[in-house]
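Subject: mismatched residue count in predicted assembly?

I count 416 residues in my input, but I want to confirm that the predicted structure covers every chain. Input:
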Amino acid sequence: MKSVVEGLRQHARVLGDREQRADLHLVEVEFGSLRAALEWLKNETGHVQLTLLSIVDWLEDGEFELSYLVTDPEAHATLIVGTRIPRDGVAVPTVWDLWPQAVTYEQEITEMFGVSFDDSPRSGVPFILESWSAAPPMRRDFDTLAYSREHYEDLPGRSSIDARTRVGQETGEKGYTLAGGDAQAGDAGRSEEHE
Amino acid sequence: MSDEKHITEIEDDLAARPYEPAVSPPTPPVDPYCYLGATEMPEPLPDGEAMSTFKNWCRANSLWIMAYGTGCGAIELRPLLTSRFDVTRFGMAPRPTPRQSNVLVIGGYLSLKTLKRVIRAYEQMPEPKWVVALGSCTINGGMYWDSYYTINRLDLYLPVDVYVSGCMPRPEAVIAGFQRLMEKIKAEEANGWNEYRKNIERYKANQKRVITDWDMPDYNW
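Triage response: the counts match. Full output below for your records.
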């Protein structure tokens, strides 16, 4: 696996790498050399299988992180090729021609996160959501509660009871411990904390 | 060994107890719509009502379920239909198409995509027809109350005759719900399908407010 990462440095700009397990390695590459890295891994090494393409929203950094899991079936080794992209205004090169199943992943990421992929065959075709016109719902700055309140009516009179408060009201104690622990000590400790 | 009482001591204890008259078992209520098993002679019904009660008795005992599983509650329908709970003893059966069924069981949360298909299926069912809604999701959204693609209240979009609460309700609870539906049908109280006809404008407005790409007929006969 080390040799693969060393070889990858020759073909792509590697920003960092980390060994997670003996058979799982993480590599972060620069966005510009993502396509070159994946092409080299597919064609020149044994990593012929795209296991997963996933995305993480780093809202505080203003970035998305794309992760391509490519697996070498003969060596039973997986390489996670990650790259950071800006949240808006970037088209990611498709890997559809390398792995046809990437079309579905790219379609879903486009729908749920609003990241577009260049030349992906089904880009713009709805994947799960029908007639969705709001922001991509899996972005962390999408407020699902506000959207739900705006579009779907609630039954009036909804209330919730906090279990801790309710048990305290019923037993007259200020705190309670879960069954199975040392009830005496726990009660004493909690009541001291509250007082 | 000293704790054990001799049989004569037990008899003495029993004799010392105050006298309690034996309680006769309560007489079972007479079902006016089903004379099988009734112990009293039936009262004559008003003219015209006899045939409708007979029809309602037939309807209540031949509930055919539309086999359309929505949400997690559909998983509770499998044990309901198989040998352990066996709702076939109530004359209920799963049917493959809406044209052959008269009970629509909503098994839980409804996404907008599913709601569209459910409305289509409901409107294609022959009348009279009834809706049984399972779980807290159909009542008030349940655990999907803040989800972006699931409705919160089913009764805005379809008339619901019986709700079964729970998350999810056990098959016993679902059977209790179906028995409540049968009681309502016999008492002519399960008129949700007629409410749908009466308030069709309101239901359609609610449906079209959430389903923005309405690409089917206004009513799916």
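The radius of gyration of chain B is 24 Å. Marking this ticket as 'not a bug'.
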